[in-house]
Amino acid sequence: MIDWLSDKDDALSDQEVWGFSAASYNFEYLKKWLGENGVAAEESKSKGKSRKMDSDESDDEKKKKKQKTEDKDKKKKKKKSASSSSKR
């Protein structure tokens, strides 16, 4: 990308850097390119399935952690209510 931006003779082509050709490139394209970890749009499409699976796994992990936290909170509330009712 740096060579492409510097317009060096040995830089990759537009197609190789971006995955497509356009008359001009803007910050939206750059944001997307950076979001794909510097992978051309065309290449990132072929990796979509593995990325989706990774994100699904992390969603499952997030749900499990959230459930554990909720369970702990419920136990704390029960414990508090039991101790406050026994003090009366």
Outline the structure in words.
The chain has 5 helices and no strands. Helix content is 73%, strand content 0%. It folds into 2 domains: 1-46, no CATH class; 48-88. The model is unreliable at 47-56 (pLDDT under 50). By secondary structure, the chain is mostly helical. The chain is rod-shaped, with a radius of gyration of 25 Å.
- Residue-averaged pLDDT: 74
Please state the CA-atom Rg, rounded to the nearest Å.
Answer: 25 Å
> What's the story with the biggest beta sheet?
none
What coarse outline follows from CA principal-axis ratios?
Answer: rod-shaped
Uncertain stretches of 5 or more adjacent residues: 47-56
Question: How much strand content do the residues show?
Answer: under 5%
Care to count the β-strands?
A: 0
Number of helices: 5
List its traits:
88 residues; mainly alpha; 2 domains; rod-shaped
Give a nutshell description of this structure.
With 88 residues, the protein is an all-alpha fold. The protein has two domains: 1-46, no CATH class; 48-88. Helix content is 73%, strand content 0%.
Break the fold down into its secondary structure elements and pairings.
Blueprint lengths: L1 H4 L8 H5 L8 H9 L5 H6 L1 H40 L1
